[in-house]
Design brief:
alpha/beta; five-stranded mixed beta sheet; globular
Length: 325
Amino acid sequence: MKQGAGAPTRRAVLGLTAGALAAPALAQARFPDRPLRLFVPWTAGSSSDVQMRSLAELAQATLGQPVVVENRPGASGTLHVQPLAASRPDGYTLGQMHLSIVRRPFLVRTPPWDAVADFTHILRLCGWMYGVAVKADSPWQDWRSFIAHAKANPGKLTFATSGIATTNHLAMEELGVREGVEFTHVPYRGSSEGMTAVLSGAVDCIADSSVWVPQVESGAMRALCVWTAERVPRLPGVPTLKELGHDMVVTSPYGISGPKGMDPGVVRALHDAFKAALFSPANTAVRAQFDMPEQYLDSEAYAGFIAQRAEYEKTMVQRLGIRLD
């Protein structure tokens, strides 16, 4: 039978059939189609862990798949970095990116990674509220009495942090230089462990993120200073470093990154989901709980920040002369 002018050819019919069959397959390949994992390099219950878990829970509502948090504490928050860099760049393995990761290549002879080249930076989230706190029954009522004791007892005062060469560790070293005193650093795997050490009397003070604030509010600890640009609303009587004569603001902004080579469409989907989570009322409340300043940057701007910060960290490490090997 002769085909009419408007009738489809056999080849066209086969093409339409193949297209119809391919469409569901393409739909099934949408990202994500299985659970994601998010490396958090701190102990469970720390301020960063609580914040990242909140983000994961909120983002999975947008992504339509679970975002499973894996805690990998230790090595100053860098134990997760090499597994992250070695993961497939498919968007299903993510990790917290922070300044210790950017800094570490400049602290060792053989850099284990390049924070600029070895990762896909998805978005910057927020920073930490750092400060120094002591046990409530300690003899130091304020920062000045603490420094006076340090000057009279060189090397005797100890401070806990979440690890060697972390932002808070280097900031305390810098403060020691500025004040003309010598502290002794006692690193722990996470800020919650450091807080416990101070409460037990094993260490004189903690210089770390705000996991210690509830202890100050309860009367178990006393804050001597905060490192934010302005005083913290929850601690209105505690001075900033600027008020104490030091032109220093230390917030150490962090974000989320994945392995290098991720598809731009996948990056966009992850960025949008975690950005929505960051600015949600639920996560805003969590950040307020830990006094974490919002410091959002999109993917392009965050990659630029990491590159710029790498140069700064290299200069700072060289100036302080700190090495890990």
